[in-house]
Amino acid sequence: MSNESSQHLSRRSFLRGGALGAAAASTFGLRTAETLAGHDGEYSKTAPPPTGFDFTKGSGQLQPDKIVDSACQFCNCNCRLKVHVKDGRVIDVLGEDADPVQAGGLCVKAEMMTQLVYNRFRLTRPLKRVGGEKGSMDSKFEPCSWEEALEIIAKKFLTLRDAGDAKAIANKTSGRLQRGTGSIIGRFFTLLGSPNDTDVGPVCNDAGGDALGTTFGLGNFTNGYGKDENTGKEDLGSARFFLFLGTNQAETQPMTFAYLLRERLKTKAKLIVIDPRLTPTGAQADEWIAPKPHTDLALVLAFLQHIIAQKLYDAKLVAKWVLGFDQLKKHLADHDYTPEWAEKITGVPATKIKAIAEGYAKARPAAIFCNAGISHQLGAFDTYRTLAFLAAITGNIGVHGGGCNFMHNTWPGGLNLLPVMGETPKKDGELPVGPDWFAESILHSRPYQLKAIVTEGNPLIGSANSKKVQEAFKKLEFYVFTGLFMEEAAYYADVILPVASGFEMDGVYMRRDDRAIRWQHAAVARVGESKTDIEIWIDLAAAMAKLDTKNKPEYWTGNLRAEWKDFGKLWAEFVARTPGVGGMSQTRMEKRAEPLRWPCASEKTPGVSTLYLDHASWYQAAEALDPKNKGKRFLTGSGKVEIFTAELDQKLVGAGHSALPIFYTHPEVTGQNPSIVYEEELVPNAINPGSVTPNVTLGGLSDGKVHEQFPLMGMCGRASVVHFAGVTQWTYFGKQMNGVRLVQIHPRTAEKSGVAQGDKIVIESPRGAITGTATLWEGIREDTIFIPNSFGPAQAMGDEFGLPRYETANTLLDDRYFDNLSGQQAYKCFAVRVRKA
């Protein structure tokens, strides 16, 4: 075997084992904060050694006919998958050696891409409801043709539109879609006249993007993995300090996290992980800090106060590039947001808060990373804003190795199509931001009633207060589910449409956190009669054209062209018409082993790695985004970082907030804390124009009464590195490796509750109850339990292993509590109690 082959096999084995190894090290070899201090930072020591021999070489059975460049759909690492195909079927999946960030590696989820293709539970034909109660797994469906299925949908949509009820139709996308699907759906809804084409952002990380856009001008992850091709310098790998808040990248972004850890071995950068529980990410850290859930805003306000009080900020940068620093300084002093104050709120010692603040401010460059742990709080927007302030005043924005790297905000606001031909209906009356408002609209007609919904995801798993969502979807007049499997939501549907999996489509699918995308090719033929979501919506437009008596057929078919079902042609349209995408052609991406970052203005320029970098490449890209940006470093109205302006403050005050955030938290955080009250009044959303939102009053003390019966705080999150949303629960590996809902509970808390290791337990909140299995875990606060999400009662694959079917974890959540600006739900804190089943 050649040295190259040996090296490849070793790397492949290490990283396939490494992702699981990190989780195993955390689970079976708990490292407390004391032992973490001397940790050497290696990613994993549990991976199996290579054999040194490749016994597939020379095998007539195992040599592929072709190797197809595809990509993984399961997280924002955007790993290239080298799909080995034999006789039209996948026989192996390898990583991309030539990508220095991926470094040939894959996590355990890569092989599950194949299990989405070859899966006996796949939906293969359109189905229509013929009987049974909505939501019941005894619901009866029968196959129908695509023509009939789309005609049913088109007739319903046109009936509602012609009755003046177009806004009663809504759609919600998900993260599994080809890039640009949202633009196609948005075009369809423009033609229809409904404002309610919503996206997955409020379930992911819209708050981070909203905060970044408000403060710096673009709502995107600010820095890049690997080298900046414009400067030749390492970007995030050059950080001297990593501040991770509420992000568990070892399980959620394992390959890019592995890259950061490899670079950290060279730089000796410090890694601080802030999370109420010890995760596999925290197990790699120099220090793990465990604040009370939903109190990160207090922690960051104290960081800011201490840095300013100690004059550790970058005075030159602040003077030149920041608006509102003096107002921020006064605000922090007036509210006495000191480390000592934050200690009482968060439970983190003031001395530790000061040390972290000083370490971050002095290290330079220092990078902040956040994910769902911050996004899934009712104060998400304000918390992200304070983190943006932290980066700005310390000189850690617009520099390699720094930035605000808030997960999921990875792509421009939309990909542009040619202008709409013809006169379209006026769209008004958009619902409040966030798909969890769907239930409120259906059940209580607030502000009006939705009557027809299409989803490309599973709201019965993803939305808060699952019982309320179930009740709403039973009452919903008409529902269309598109998906790979008969998930929970499918049983409420009137029409079910089968979609293609990632290995069955061309184009741009997932994206890396740092705005990087790659082209992928279909590796295998479509299963059954499945279609991509883009194809579905364009074909639905054609069905509308046949039935619409108010518009000529060209109104639909000319604005949603059949040729765009060829993703290559659609992408060429996007590239030609979307600012900042001009250099991201299919041909260019096909030639690259590495993904290509946005913005990328032309074929002659590399993509931008560090946003706001004081470098010609950034100024060129900024101008390509909008000619009005010429000469601007930051893309706000002022061209500077906007901490405070009178205009911004006035806008936010209208929705109950302010440009300078005050501390408040969820009313179900233990103790009495400054909290939030939601008004009945719906007011314009200051961050999402065109939408309305409940007005709020901030700062009044919570009464703590809920904890008389429910003394603990629950948190939901990723089950393990094995799972990504609910789709991996339908794979053989997913259920084999992590098919039991293991609820983390501190041993002393478990003892008080009469619970032992491995006991079947019931977790109850004021909204309902679910079951799980207790796993005693010293690496979690005693007042907190962690409940893995993405489990659901329809997951038939678990039956293969004799596993229980669980109710969704979101049964426990209260949908009334959410970030009224971004729509983010508060998945990270809710009052619970635990008992043995």
Automatic annotation (TrEMBL):
Domain 4Fe-4S Mo/W bis-MGD-type: residue ranges: 65-121
The EC number(s) attached to this protein equal 1.2.1.2
Q: Which cofactor does it need?
A: [4Fe-4S] cluster
Q: Which InterPro entries does the record match to this protein?
A: Asp_de-COase-like_dom_sf (IPR009010), MoPterin_dinucl-bd_dom (IPR006657), Mopterin_OxRdtase (IPR006656), Mopterin_OxRdtase_4Fe-4S_dom (IPR006963), TAT_signal (IPR006311)
| Signal sequence residues | none
Q: Name one GO molecular function term.
A: electron transfer activity
Q: What top-level branch of life does the organism fall under?
A: Bacteria
- Alphabetical keyword list: 4Fe-4S, Iron, Iron-sulfur, Metal-binding, Oxidoreductase, Signal
Question: Where, per UniProt, does this protein localize?
Answer: Cell envelope
Return the annotated region ranges for Disordered. 40-59
Q: What class of enzyme is it?
A: oxidoreductase
Note whether Signal occurs among the keywords.
Answer: yes
Q: Name one GO biological process term.
A: anaerobic respiration
Q: Which family does it belong to?
A: Belongs to the prokaryotic molybdopterin-containing oxidoreductase family.
Name of this protein: Formate dehydrogenase
